[in-house]
C-alpha cells in the first residue's frame, strides 16, 4: 500500500512572496505617480485613478477566486482518493 504524503507541505518560498509583493507595490506606485504627473485635467486623472483602483481590486478578487477553486478541487480529489483507498483496502485484505 502506498504511503500518503501531505501535499500541504509544499508552499511558496519567502523569496518568491517577497518578489511578488515588491513587484505589486512598485507597479501600483509607478501607476499612481504616472497618473499624478500626466499633464491632463483633474477629471481625467480621477478617471484613471478610478480605473486603476477597480482593475487592482478585480485582479485581487480574481486571484483569490482562482486559488479558492483550486483548493476546493484539491480537497475533492483528496476525499475521492481516500474513498478509493478505503474500497481497495477492503478487497485486498
TrEMBL record:
Keywords: Membrane, Transmembrane, Transmembrane helix
Transmembrane segments: 16-38
Keyword Cell inner membrane in annotation: no
A cellular component annotation (GO) from this entry: plasma membrane
Gene Ontology biological process terms in this record: DNA damage response
Stored Pfam families: YiaAB
Superkingdom of origin: Bacteria
YiaAB two helix domain mapped to chain residues: 16-68
Name of the featured protein: YiaAB two helix domain-containing protein
Amino acid at each position: 500500500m502506498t504511503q500518503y504524503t501531505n501535499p500541504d507541505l509544499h508552499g511558496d518560498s519567502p523569496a518568491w512572496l517577497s518578489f511578488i509583493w515588491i513587484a505589486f507595490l512598485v507597479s501600483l506606485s509607478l501607476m499612481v505617480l504616472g497618473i499624478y504627473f500626466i499633464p491632463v485635467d483633474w477629471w481625467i486623472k480621477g478617471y484613471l485613478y478610478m480605473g486603476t483602483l477597480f482593475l487592482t481590486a478585480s485582479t485581487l478578487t480574481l486571484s483569490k477566486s482562482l486559488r479558492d477553486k483550486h483548493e476546493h478541487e484539491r480537497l475533492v480529489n483528496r476525499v475521492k482518493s481516500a474513498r478509493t483507498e478505503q474500497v481497495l483496502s477492503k478487497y485486498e485484505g
